[in-house]
Design goal:
- The structure is a single chain.
- It is built from 15 helices and no strands.
- The longest helix has 29 residues.
Length: 316
């Protein structure tokens, strides 16, 4: 009930000028994102839910613009609108994953295109580890790091650091440089060549996500261009004239749009990184372990410590 009351108050605050339409739409997004159970979104992974809501943000704005309080509370509007939006988004998502623009692609076509375009989502067949002996599979590359801990040979703390460093490197695949790869490989005892192959595989799956971020950045820059343009035009007009008020409304809209897009770009959800669920499938781990390793890496960073030892350089 409290969630509904929070949403139902937004139209009144909006009408009183307490927030702009863009700010109101962002508030709706935040309420939905932080209350997935209330809006039947618990079955979506956290990263997937974030991507869905970010792409739905313009629809929240249009919903607020045409909202009629006489027909019902805003919470009901949002609740009954989300299933249709989610269906459209899911359909477009899987169409994009299949890579097919034609009508009626076969199941084999979809499967093969998924292998090519979204490699992280494809689990290896059962028994693949035993059949492959060339070390080129992801699971075999990191078998030593994520295998059973040999307490007599390596301290538990060092093993945990190695795993956290490796997961953090894979999570940062789009941004990590060659020098950092060598340091991680040296610390974890992995081959740089195999590590780079895995990183390239991850990068391939992140191309579309990078395109979405670039598109958001371009729209952010475009909004700032109009902010500068309308500020110059406003300075040349008589204050409080009709023309001045019209330009001022345009300026406020573009400025709000710029702030919203800038906030989204600065948030971690717009970073070009693989989902924790995808990394877990790739490493044959439970997703909560990926989260734990990343949390440990953040804890070390907050304490001013490094995951890698001072001699973390690969001997090649």
């Amino acid at each position: 009930m409290q969630v509904c009351e929070t949403l139902d108050k937004i139209p009144q605050v909006l009408a009183e000028g307490g927030m702009t339409v863009d700010e109101a739409a962002m508030k709706v997004l935040e309420v939905v994102y932080t209350n997935p159970g209330r809006f039947n979104l618990l079955d979506m992974a956290e990263d997937e839910r974030s991507d869905f809501l970010l792409e739905t943000l313009p629809k929240f704005r249009r919903l607020l613009e045409r909202y009629d309080k006489s027909l019902g509370p805003l919470g009901a509007y949002v609740y009954y609108s989300l299933p249709g939006w989610r269906f459209t988004w899911s359909k477009r998502f899987w169409d994009s994953a299949s890579g097919k623009k034609g009508v009626g692609p076969s199941i084999r076509d979809i499967y093969e295109d998924t292998l090519e375009r979204r490699p992280l989502l494809v689990a290896e067949p059962r028994g693949a580890k035993k059949r492959q002996g060339n070390g080129d599979s992801v699971s075999l590359v990191f078998k030593r790091v994520f295998g059973p801990v040999k307490y007599s040979l390596e301290p538990r703390e060092k093993v945990h650091r190695q795993r956290s460093a490796l997961v953090l490197a894979l999570k940062s695949a789009w941004y990590i440089d060659d020098d950092s790869v060598k340091k991680v490989c040296g610390f974890c005892g992995c081959s740089s060549e195999n590590m780079n192959q895995v990183l390239e595989k991850i990068k391939t799956s992140l191309v579309e996500k990078n395109e979405r971020r670039q598109d958001m950045a371009e729209r952010r820059d475009k909004a700032w261009y109009f902010v500068c343009k309308y500020r110059q035009r406003l300075a040349a007009l008589s204050p409080n004239s009709d023309a001045w008020k019209k330009v001022k409304r345009k300026l406020d809209y573009q400025l709000s749009s710029w702030k919203t897009k800038n906030r989204l770009l600065q948030g971690c959800r717009m970073n070009v990184t693989p989902r924790n669920e995808d990394l877990a499938k790739m490493l044959h781990l439970h997703p909560h372990r990926i989260t734990a390793f990343l949390r440990y890496a953040r804890k070390m960073a907050d304490q001013g410590e490094t995951l890698l030892s001072s001699e973390s350089a690969e001997d090649e």
